[in-house]
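Could someone model calcium ion with this protein?
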Amino acid sequence: MLMISFFVVVSAFTGRLSWADEITAFSDDFESGAQPEWSSTSVSTTPASERKFLGRFTNNTVSLSLSGLPSHSNITIELDLFIIHSWDGNPWNWGPDIWGIDINGSTTLKKTTFSNGYGPGQAYPGDYTNSSTYDSNSARTGAVENNTLGYGSGGWGDSVYHLSFTSSHSDSSVAFNFFGQNLQAVSDESWGLDNVVVKIEPVSTAVTLSSFSAEAGGDGSVTLTWETATEIDNAGFNLYRSRLKDGNYKKINGELISATGSETAGASYSYEDTPPASGTYYYKLEDVDTNGASAMHGPVKVKVRSEGSEARRR
Ligand SMILES: [Ca+2]
Ligand SMILES: [Ca+2]
Ligand SMILES: [Ca+2]
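Reply:
Sure, complex below.
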């Protein structure tokens, strides 16, 4: 359901997004249950304020799987992490108490430890590693809420962390894995997720074209000129020619015509083509961005007289 409404929004953008236009690809606050993209749809209610959240979990791996994402260069996930009861933080008798998140089981976004007051501090907001170089911070460092969920107080209380991770990502599907490791029973220490939002930054060539025209010279050549107002992440241009407006367009330039514009200032370009014979031709201009995405402009139409046909007319 969610993905359908999402596509309607995307198609309305007509491929001319600016780089800052993030799209919300998924969101879940669990107030009416967990959406089917979750591997576990177990929802709990906090004793205080009756907040519904995904959980509670201990040494589980829970996945959020999304597919059909439009072309994008970055993906961001934001969430509230509930750390409930006697998390013990960094290594000691009942630790380390590890929580983490990765993409597709390969890209670790965070692997850290939390403590609600037991144990020798926690790694968060730093990282936990299996070597002796893990970070050590005071219990509850970085928590945005303390003992607000109603599970208790002190080392047996609860804490909430607002986490946000952005990763370079372009596949049309993604699985986020959330995991606990080395934890005691759910009655002793547990975790949950709330207000999960996934955003993507759509790939856009983001070239604003001011003009594109073709002019026939008397010698059978065609001069193509175009101007841009702004160019964002633009690598360059290709030109395509066809005898028919809806025909088979063939690329006429060898190497990419390098971009010289910028986000704040456009540029002027020209390219001279010599079609194989006289007649009517159509040209299209393609801009290609640094991520490989492209957009077509045109076509423009031009009538070409070769030198030979020009001579016969005289
Ligand atoms: Ca909620
Ligand atoms: Ca414990
Ligand atoms: Ca523990």
